[in-house]
User: Fold these one by one.
Assistant:
Number 1:
Amino acid sequence: MKRFAIASMLFVVAVAAAGFLSPRAASAEDIKLVGVITQIDIAGPDATTATATLKDNKTGDLVTVIVTDELTLDKFKDHRIVTGDEIRLKYEVKDGKNTSKYFRKTAGC
Amino acid sequence: MKRYLIVLSLLVVAGTAAQAKEHPGKAYIEKNGYRGPATCEAQGCHPGTAKAFLSTVHWKHASPVANVENLDPGKEYGMKNRIYTMCNGNDIVNNLKEIPPNPKTGKTKFTGCNACHPGNHISDAGSTGKDAENAVDCLVCHSSAYDFRLRKPYKDAAGRVVMGQDRTPKAALSVGKPGVKNCMVCHEAAGGGVLIKRGFAFVRETDVHAAKGMVCVDCHGAKDHKIPTGYDPNNWANDGVRVACSDCHGEKPHADEDTNRHVARIACQTCHIPRTGGATAKDFTRWTQGEDGFFEPTTLRMEANETTPVYAWYNKTVRNEPHFIGPKGSRGDKQSRIYPFKLYEGKAYFDKKTGMLLSMDFAPPMATGDTLAGVASAAKTLGIKEYDPVPGWQTVYFGSSHLVTKEKALSCANCHAPNGALNFKSLGYTDEEIRKLTSAALYFDKMAAKQKENW
């Protein structure tokens, strides 16, 4: 009985957390969206992290993610990626923070 | 083999050397600014470089092509004029321009294949003369401080579409040997977006050479801007110079003689590039509308290393038909080796009258999704008056020469097993031979010994 109570308590917490962190997917999964960059903040040429804010095309919501992968950071630094670009984004919530796992321009043929 | 030692020794000093050396001409550029190739050629430095550049594939987007069937031997081929189904157009029908406004949003954008050309679009792929020489964007390949906000298409005062360049002194003062990034400005997004064509991510995690700090030009080193290439059945244009794995590693790179023996019939890539990536299929007859209102060809994307290659005999000559572009070769032909390919299928319109693949101007479908309007616009540009468009598929084999691995290289049991990497039957082996080739007898003693060694 005690086991059961703990398990169900954990379950309630898990559901709440999942609902809180991500309206679209379970917390363990990546969240995906396509959106336009409204802001990029990067400390300078030697920065190893940046934040980018995107406006989700579907919902209109603003989503801010932390970007740490070298290739994308470099594209912020030399402006291969700029505000106004449309991005296909995949991120996860790590320690309460939106962390980018995939950040690419949608540009076509 | 000599090349290998040179690259190896350079790798050891790389980093320090690159940073310590300052490019001569600094004072000149600081005083006079940067005016394009003229500045590079000032004071007797790099004379004639821009003129020579105009005869390369990177400027012409075309060259004579000797190893592909069904071509006109008097003509040059390349992105300028080819038509296939990875990108169903070319620089001519899909010239860089502003597309019609999207009916939903009223917005427009610039698009065109020749956006990936180091000119200014006024001097375009294949142009010649003084204006063309002055238009070469040397810094896109040579500067490590290029500001890509300046490399954008825009309309000039006369209404012409111009491709911008960064010609600031800052960019010019940071010139050097091209880095991976310089090449990837265009190569990363070939085929319609990041990693679409080849899933070719040149990073530590995906390529042993990148992990060792090598860059593109360590292998694609060029003289007079003739950049060596290989024999990908779908990259025809070439500067007449080639690069191969064996240039550096020789034909017997392994301590293990059993592996070396395979090199005669099996390309290095087959064992060392066990996966490929990028798009596996596209539909140009039905485009998908994005959230921004614009349309794109419907594309099945794959990441680097997400796709299993197909294996085929290849003698470096290419079968070229409306519904198939790929390797020629056979087991019986001693020039042929087994190579890995990415199999790609593209759906587009073919002309029922001639059976030939039609091309498409992307501007109309990008704005409205009307793909037949794109075919009509391209036909008009090419002077084709009568055609009858019917949807059909084309199969394309892409070569696979990057994403090199040592750890995941195919070994004995990966191939010599009933359900192994190779389809021995389709490669021309008889049932009797296949029974032998799929038996553990071929490698049992060897693997058993190795197993003992490793434990």
Number 2:
Amino acid sequence: MDMKRDYYEDIQLLDSKVLWFWFIMLIAALGVFPFLSPNYYIYMANYMAINVIVTVGLNILVGYTGQISLGHAGFFAIGAYGTVLLMSYLHVPFFLALVAAAFIAAFFGFVLGLPALRLEGPYLAIATLGFGMAITQVIGRWQVFGGRMGMEAPPLTLFGVNLETDFQRYFLIIPVTFFMTWAARNLMKTRVGRAFIAIRDSDIAAETMGVNLTLYKTLSFAVSAFYTGIAGGLFAFLLGFINPSTFNFFLSIYFLAFVIVGGIGSIFGSIMGGVVMTFLLLELDKIQEISFLGIGQMLAAFSERWMTLVGLPNIASIIFGLIIILLVVFEPLGLYGFWIRTKIYWKTWPF
Amino acid sequence: MAGDILFSVDELSISFGGLVAVDRVSFNLEKGAIFSIIGPNGAGKTTIFNCINGLYKPDSGVITFKGEEITGLAPHRIARKGIARTFQNIELFANMTTMENLMLGRHIHMKTGIWTGATFFRRGSRAAQDEIRHRERVERIIDLLDLQAARNQFVGALPYGTQKLVELGRALALEPELLLLDEPSAGMNSEEKQDLIFWIKDIQDELGMSILLIEHDMKMVMDISDRILAINFGKPIVEGLPEEVQKHPEVLKAYLGEDESFDSAA
Amino acid sequence: MFLQLIMSGLSFGSLYALIALAMVIIYKTSEVPNFGQGEMAMISTFVAYTLLVTYQYSYAVSFVGALLFAAVLGVFLEFVFLRRAKDPNVLSLILITLGFEMVLYGLASWKWGADQRDLPFPVSDFDTVSLGPAVVSYLNIATLLITLVLMFFLFLFFKYTKVGIAMKATQQNAMAARINGIRTNRILSITWAMSSLIGAVAGILLAPIATLDPNLMLDPLLKGFSSAVLGGMTTLVGAALGGYILGIIENLFGGYVSLEFKSIVAFGIIVLVLCFKPSGLFARHYVRKV
Ligand SMILES: Nc1ncnc2c1ncn2[C@@H]1O[C@H](COP(=O)(O)OP(=O)(O)OP(=O)(O)O)[C@@H](O)[C@H]1O
Ligand SMILES: [Mg+2]
């Protein structure tokens, strides 16, 4: 091999013309979408984007570094409450408040990462779970945080423009998501991300090669918490209102489900996971209204006869649970694994 | 070859529960030399390595590297001092490619942090430059060890012998002054072993690294070692030149069984 | 006041101890903390309720029925899902049990809605007896006694029965156990049945003092899990002690410091203990060999 290798090709995102093409198509589609679509779907897109940020963030910790967290709803809450409080009480401008709140979340992540250093498996699970529970309990009981009643998000102004509608917020949320996803992907391709992955694959080898486990495990928690904090801050404005019951234990599990469904240790998978699961989540919430094949009516009738009608939306929980179990058992790489296999299939098609 | 002493272990002991795994072991390693530790299974060889690179904290004893005591430092600190190792039961990053495994070996020499790493969007960015520079260095190691074919493969899927080489490459990428090799030839066929001996000599001569070697293949040990330490049940039996150790009656007895000779053991 | 707090701490501690035991039994054989434990117990308690209130069976029939149901449920979940996991690492196993949790929670909420119900119980929580300065309800006493008796039987079971000894062997070294002719798959089933059954006892004892709804076991599960971790996750005695320690500390904190933040203290303790003793109070830290 005489030709000198171009090492930048190893790490750049868009390393071929085809990718450039799809990349530009994606940006165009994202730009045009809100002008063509009904408001509800813009809201849904915003929701998806926020969950993509969380999924990417959680995947950095769970998928790339191999640590478990059952407390990410806590970081989400810190981001949401932090942003709202900083804006309402201290009149910090939105963007500053958002970043500051995410840094607060990152700080908590760092602190939580400290005991996590020496903990594995179930011990780490319980420590993070305890953290998440403690956060919800504190915000639920302290009046500063609005207690059980929750808090209203203040008006959201950015560069003098008041973002009141989902349509307007779309142009804030999507670029933020876009940037953060790309940044995460870059991070994983370079030194710090490599250290995370090394810790996941063999922490002993990583530390004997000079990776400071203390530092990098806590960093992973902090980065992950930062992402989740940003997402939480955006989420407060998506709903316009936050209360403690939103940030419960189940939310933490849902976040994990996003990661699993999308694909452990894959940024692209995180995007798919966040999008698909948010869609499911929002659609399953109004399952009675599905008119397709009369499913909604049938379910309602079934519920009346055998179960309860008020309980019907809980089908979401059942389906999510089943998805988690079935994926873990049959497709541990999630949608990403699926995607890879289809890609290979099409490449060799029709043979 | 009476060079400077690069590294020394003095009266090192460690026990697990009642078992004294290493019992007052001492030795010195001259700069640029290959020093081997031999002994039967469970003698405590790997445990000595684990103490040296900080995975275990010894109960007593002093470990000195370049005139500085390093006993009880955390593993990553010891790596930064310039000591790298391979493992008896391969400890690779199975879901990374060969290239990335070796790049991790560059970790302590690289500078990219979270922010610069996350925000490279151009060839000229600092993180990209850092990557490119170190990938070039790693490429040289890949060439040296003939790993081109495995370059972009996930190491988990590579054959055992190749994995051993990748591990060696990763340790080399750290550019250590002292290299600890724990049974590098285990599981290799004789051809691969031949190459390995060749490379270890290269590493010694051309890269100027000093090597501490644990190895069961007696022929290889006798071939390449400058000095040898034999231990059994954690206790040192004899230390000296290959010829001396080879002839020592207790070594013959403990290590080979009474009626075997070195040739049949290899 | 102090004695009073201790007494009710003991009563809650018993419940935590039961859940902790249930979790540890499974953890030792399947090496997974079973997050579905709470919902398994909750559903079993609902079964007891349905038998008792809807179908008007006697206490004995209803409770035994519910316990049987619990055992079958445990075997079912292990056999149908957990055993299928292809490459079971800790994370994927935890996720599967979280999946159980969601499915069972969803099923219960669908079937029984969010209504709060009362589970009738033969022993009253309102009739009390004075023990010195402390007033204790019959139900408290019953809870404590039932727990202690159950633990005693567990102890005998592991010590003297053939199955119990086989279970212990499997927990220590599954491979060696299999070579020695122990059918480890069957042991797994028995483990899950037992664990689920113990959890159901906790649920049935808890429901009369709490209210029966799908959230019944959410908090107790976390406390029970905390107790198990506190005790070291691998020792039955440790788990039981952990439960009582947690129950008492929590109650004392609630009584003297702040009732509001009573629940948080459990997690505070856990995080603190784990900081200093990563494997809990009563277990040795495991170092991986290389
Ligand atoms: N972390 C540990 N806990 C308990 N015992 C240990 C630990 N590490 C090593 N030992 C014990 O110390 C003794 C020496 O082990 P070591 O691995 O150093 O042997 P070795 O000389 O490398 O043998 P081999 O040739 O088989 O690799 C063995 O009895 C081993 O069981
Ligand atoms: Mg060894």
